[in-house]
Amino acid sequence: MFEGLSEKLERSFKVLKGHGHISEVNVAETLKEVRRALLDADVSFKIAKQFTEVVKEKALGQKILTSVSPGQLMVKIVHDELADLMGADSVELDIKGNPAIILIAGLQGSGKTTFSAKLANFLKSKRGRNPLLIAGDVYRPAAINQLKVLGEQVNVKVYTEEDNKDPVKIAKNGIKYAKEFGHNLVIIDTAGRLAVDEAMMNEIANIKSSVNPQETLFVVDSMTGQDAVNTAKAFNDRLDYEGVVLTKLDGDTRGGAALSIKSVVNKPIKFVGIGEKMDAIDVFHPSRMADRILGMGDIVSLVEKAQEQFDAEEARKLQKKIAKNQFNFDDFLNQIKQIKKMGNVKDLMGMIPGVGKAIKNMDIDDDAFKGIEAIIYSMTNEERENPKILNGSRRRRIAVGSGTDIQEVNQLIKQFGETQKMMKMMSGGKGKNLMRAMANMNKMPGR
Hints:
This protein folds into three domains: 3-85, SRP54, nucleotide-binding domain (Four Helix Bundle (Hemerythrin (Met), subunit A), Up-down Bundle); 100-296, P-loop containing nucleotide triphosphate hydrolases (Rossmann fold, 3-Layer(aba) Sandwich); 303-441, 434 Repressor (Amino-terminal Domain) (Orthogonal Bundle), CATH 1.10.260.30. 55% of the residues lie in helices and 9% in strands. The chain is built from 21 helices and eight strands. Strands 3-2-4-1-5-6-7-8 form an eight-stranded mixed β-sheet, with helices on both faces. Helix 1 packs antiparallel against helix 2, helix 5 runs parallel beside helix 6 (143-154) and helix 19 (392-402) packs across helix 20 (406-428). The longest helix has 23 residues, at 406-428.
């Protein structure tokens, strides 16, 4: 995500390295590189120029503290301006109606149908809503079936009228159905359309005026860059929507759409799509995104993801086991499962400050723990509960059963011992060697 932009911005700040003060000359040189980085990220020249002018004005007006270098100060100013460019603060959805109505609009292929199901899942699991999905795309042959399949995946009811070709009537009838059957939230998926197609733009405008949604969201593929921004403006001129959704952000190494769209349409980015799974959407936080662009990680989002999977009762049981030095391979396996539920492993690691750059060229996928799991599943219940009995013959049997070699099994058992020690340190409040123990985790087989 934003890999190219992050690298170029990092290089631009090196211009100030070694300088004891900020001057008009070294700031101009740095901002020339910043502007070039933004242009390469597919940000318009006008926005890039305005951005660097604001940064220059703030940088030259700042006094540098003795504890802060010019480079650090420039990073801080650029960070704050990037966050401001993307909207400064996150903006919540308005879902106060009964039912609350959310209308989804956008181009063909932007990911509207998938996002509709993701949003239903998000509002159901994290906001306690009972959503209804309405299949309003009457033109794409597979659209209704796709929404049905996705609805089943997230256990959300999908309202369809397959013989009806009037999306306005379908939307209105779907809302009546929601009221009748107790759905307090409605999400209307609509057909993809071009801004230049007058008939189709009239249709989406008619749907909006007929159902009067609390939220109209414009869904756009972030990888289309400046084209996405231009399209967003054209749609906003007709629909005056409440917010933007950027899909496929995990595949966007440039970032032009995320950086430009708020400035052009003056509407907040409310959600971002970050993968194919049904839980792969995030509320958009401009400041956190600025952190990630500048290589600072996103520890707040990482903690929030962990808290979503946090089970207080299980945690108490685990704490007792750790305190008694009874943490075993079954507990270790459960911790791996919790991590996997949090999302893509490489993306999670990239949220840790300083780690993103270190792992950018590493091939870490969702099967990162596959080797570890295979080894543990090849153990008997007794071996998982009491790793001390894992002698040579048992280890050879486990290696054969897991499709690994004896060295990998030995390495995992050794590293598991380190994990036990780490857990004991955490339980006892001894944190001096914690980071060293955590670093050893990266050497485990399958990582």
